[in-house]
Amino acid sequence: xxxxxxxxxxxxxxxxxxAFLSTISxxxxxxxxxxxxxxxxxxxxxxxxxxxxxxKLIGSAAHGNLMKVTYGFTEYRETLDTMRKTPGVVAATxxxxxxxxxxxxxxxxxxxxxxxxxxxxxxxxxLPYRYEQGSLDYMRDPKRLLEDTKKRIADxxxxxxxxxxxxxxxxRRWGEAELPPVAIGQELATFLNVGVGDEVNxxxxxxxGMGPTGPVPQNQxxxxxxxxxxxxxxxxxxxVYTPLSALQQFAEMGDDVTAIEFRVAPEDIYDTPFIGEAxxxxxGGFPYKARDWMEMNRNLFSALRLQRAAMFVILTFITLVAxxxxxxxxxxxxxxxxxxxxxxxxxxxxxxxxxAIFVLDGLTIGGIGTAIGLAAGVLLCALIPYLPFELDxxxxxxxxxxxxxxxxxxxxxxxxxxxxxxxxxxxxSWRASRLNPVEGLREE
Length: 444
Description:
By secondary structure, the chain is α+β, with helices and mostly antiparallel strands. The protein is built from 17 helices and twelve strands. The strands form two sheets. The protein has a six-stranded mixed barrel, surrounded by four helices. A two-stranded antiparallel ribbon has the order 7-8. The radius of gyration is 34 Å and the shape is elongated.
């Protein structure tokens, strides 16, 4: 058995008489390398995208929320006190959420209208506080917003940047009434063609009660106090924020809230489900229910995991194709070395030893290809941040790519490549071990 590695390596060495065989071996190595490289790069990119998306969600949005499954949540202040005393809860804040339409003179869009407590929301979620334009002061003081807007318009007219007649014709957009403030995302501001100080119309399709012909829409004008940028299209386009009291008044819901959202410490982020259960237990159970960030984004992360598994299976076929090259190489080697195999068997070499020669040859080809592919994959992943790849943020929630390695995925890739290479060696090596030495030496 000890001579098998020596003979196997000798068979793999390039010779003039076996140039074609050496070419096939090189092609097989390249095939395995391409398959492994593709697996490493694609899985690392998907992993990086998943982690970046998760970090954005965790860093910007609340980690969980608490709601009542029965109607009415007016005792939220007492509930907040209990939640803040629960171990693991760092901060909590109430909110109101409604699906509405928002319109300007240019466009109209469906959005999620969220009323937040300006004093406590910043400790739970960063979404409405990353202002590109405007400020939180405008959200707190609509009167100041109106005064600054008037001053800006007057300065623009004086500087000749705006015609007075144009301002008069469009006074609805720059009205002089003190209106409740809203903060909108950068994408939505672009879509509506509005800026800080402009007015937008919020329409609740079912908020006006029932009329003779059905539901009566309810509408109210608000003034844009800030434009925020999260970097995720879904948030920058679909969320509109206003002070809690403003939305409660608009929705005519008194002192009721939709739910309470909370935040946990970074080290407890994966314990959010258990912390939510502890909150519900501290409140006495029913009718309270907690949801964590993993549950709220379950569909998104499930789709990413499914995509990662599907890509692993699909890209493994590249290595499978390369396995046929390994098998072909070994078949050609068996045919070329038939007489040498016959001599070895006549000298007492066992079938197991002969089989080991070609198994080692196949594993060597697969191992070299795997090593080259792994090195190339790691190098490409290191270069990805510097390559000019741009993603459509509207579809992918972010504009760039990153690659992050998962040791388990790397290990699975290596094991899969070596296993496929090993399987590809079995039949050719078995054929070699079954060779009859008499037939192999017949022409000698």
